[in-house]
């Protein structure tokens, strides 16, 4: 599994009944059947298989890993971080308790987002540049 420290393509996975965090991740991302297969067989899987099973989002060659990881982190850090935090809460509520739990958070979280400088910058950029061009034109400040 590329991108995991101490691993290489075809490396045995770190999923086991003892490593419950990894087991939950596999269950959440790939479903219970795949998680059981990984845990019970202790087979080796390559990165492409884990990507196909949705356990990892993308696979990159080892020599590109640091550059692509840094670029992705910079993209997130320069984005609307308060909206990202809200999105993270919605997804976690959905995963833990379902759609209704996520829906109940809307009234709690959304109003404050509409008051942020990032929301105003996003709306202004959308109006000024249009839906296809505004992403590269808006500067978010995380406030």
Structure description:
- The protein has 2 domains: 57 residues, no CATH class; 59 residues.
- Helix content is 62%, strand content 0%.
- It has 7 helices and no strands.
- The protein is flat, with a radius of gyration of 19 Å.
- The chain has 143 residues and is an all-alpha fold.
- α1 crosses α2 and α5 packs antiparallel against α6.
What's a concise summary of this model?
The chain is an all-alpha fold. 62% of the residues lie in helices and 0% in strands.
Which geometry do the CA atoms define?
A: flat
- Multimeric status of the protein: single chain
Strand residues, percent: under 5%
Secondary structural class:
mainly alpha
Low-confidence stretches: 1-19
Helices and strands in order:
Elements: H1 20-30, H2 32-41, H3 47-52, H4 62-77, H5 81-97, H6 99-113, H7 117-129
Helix pairs in contact: 1-2, 5-6
Can you tag this structure with a few keywords?
disordered N terminus, 7 helices, 143 residues, 62% helix, mainly alpha, 2 domains, flat, single chain, 0% strand
């Amino acid at each position: 599994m590329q991108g995991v420290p101490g691993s290489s393509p075809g490396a045995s996975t770190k999923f086991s009944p003892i490593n419950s965090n990894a087991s939950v991740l596999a269950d959440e991302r790939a479903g219970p059947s795949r998680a059981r297969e990984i845990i019970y067989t202790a087979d080796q899987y390559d990165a492409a298989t884990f990507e196909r099973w949705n356990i990892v989002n993308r696979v990159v060659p080892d020599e590109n890993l640091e550059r692509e990881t840094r670029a992705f982190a910079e993209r997130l850090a320069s984005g609307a971080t308060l909206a990202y935090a809200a999105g993270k809460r919605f997804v976690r509520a959905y995963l833990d308790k379902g759609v209704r739990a996520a829906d109940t958070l809307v009234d709690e979280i959304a109003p404050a987002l509409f008051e942020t400088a990032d929301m105003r910058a996003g709306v202004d950029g959308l109006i000024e540049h249009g839906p296809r061009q505004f992403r590269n034109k808006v500067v978010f400040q995380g406030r």
